[in-house]
Design goal:
With 124 residues, this protein is an all-alpha fold. It contains 7 helices and no strands. It binds heme C (HEC). Heme C binds next to helix 4, helix 5 and helix 6.
């Protein structure tokens, strides 16, 4: 039996959910990313795509694709394909599902801007 005390927070929860949904559907058609914004969003990717000091490990074989220096649009499209399920890798699908179009564009620009001489990003 649910007590009245617990029920009384339901309207707030419903409002919160409605706001969260409204926020996620408001997206521009043409999303322009920036490397600076992407810089703060790649922390999720660190564990797999950026072994610390990974450039020093060259030419070892990587288990995950190297993203630094990759084309920005290619990265954003690949992430969108994971999100839509057109690419199947389960972990990448779960991660991409949490990204907005803006996040994907920013992350694409961020990785595209990486070169062998880029300073090591502590967030990466
Ligand atoms: C748990 C490990 C893991 C994490 C965390 C992770 N990835 Fe991946 N990622 C992989 C693996 C493994 C693949 C190869 C999957 C495949 O073959 O489809 C991959 C593939 C990709 C690809 C496709 C590359 C290509 O050349 O086709 C992109 C783009 C990508 N990841 C971006 C990201 C971004 C951006 C993040 C952070 C938001 C992230 N990944 C986090 C493991 C991970």
């Amino acid at each position: 039996m649910i007590s009245m005390k617990k029920l009384s927070i339901l309207p707030q929860l419903a409002l919160f959910a409605a706001l969260a949904i409204a926020g996620s559907v408001v997206q521009a058609d043409e999303v322009k990313g920036t490397a600076a914004a992407g810089n703060g969003k790649v922390w999720l990717c660190v564990g797999c795509h950026s072994i610390p000091e990974y450039r020093a490990d060259y030419p070892l074989v990587y288990k995950v694709p190297m993203l630094g220096g990759q084309n920005a649009a290619y990265i954003a499209v690949a992430l969108a394909e994971y999100k839509k399920g057109e690419r199947k890798h389960p972990t990448m699908r779960a991660i991409a599902a949490s990204l907005s179009d803006q996040d994907m564009a920013d992350i694409g620009e961020y990785y595209a801007a990486q070169t062998a001489s880029s300073p090591i990003n502590p967030l990466k």
